[in-house]
Amino acid sequence: MYSLVYVAARIWIRRDGRLEEVEFEAIRYLVAIFPSAYAPNRPSWREYLPHILRVLYRSKKCRTYQDCDLFYRVGRCL
């Protein structure tokens, strides 16, 4: 997603009061689609990493099992 679109969407969601809900849903979705760190999956997870890192950077802490799982998966890939 382009940076300007990302910022605009984030402002709109925050103004609507749904920021935490949308972050949780995004993390849940990313956990469902993010492949494992095995070598054959490398092309797939390399495409997802910039987007996932942006979401995790905003999250900064493990609030749910999905957050922790996504942090773990990304760490294994890095």
Keywords:
78 residues, mainly alpha, globular
- Give the overall form: globular
Q: How many separate domains make up the residues? A: 1
pLDDT < 50 stretches: none
Query: SSE string, helix = H, strand = E?
Result: HHHH
How would you describe this protein?
The protein is globular. With 78 residues, it is an all-alpha fold. Helix 2 (19-33) runs antiparallel to helix 3, helix 2 (19-33) crosses helix 4 (65-77) and helix 3 (42-59) crosses helix 4 (65-77). The chain has helices spanning 3-16, 19-33, 42-59, 65-77. The chain has one domain. Helices cover 77% and strands 0% of the residues.
In a nutshell, what does this entry contain?
The protein has helices at residues 3-16, 19-33, 42-59, 65-77. 77% of the residues lie in helices and 0% in strands.
Structural topology:
Elements: H1 3-16, H2 19-33, H3 42-59, H4 65-77
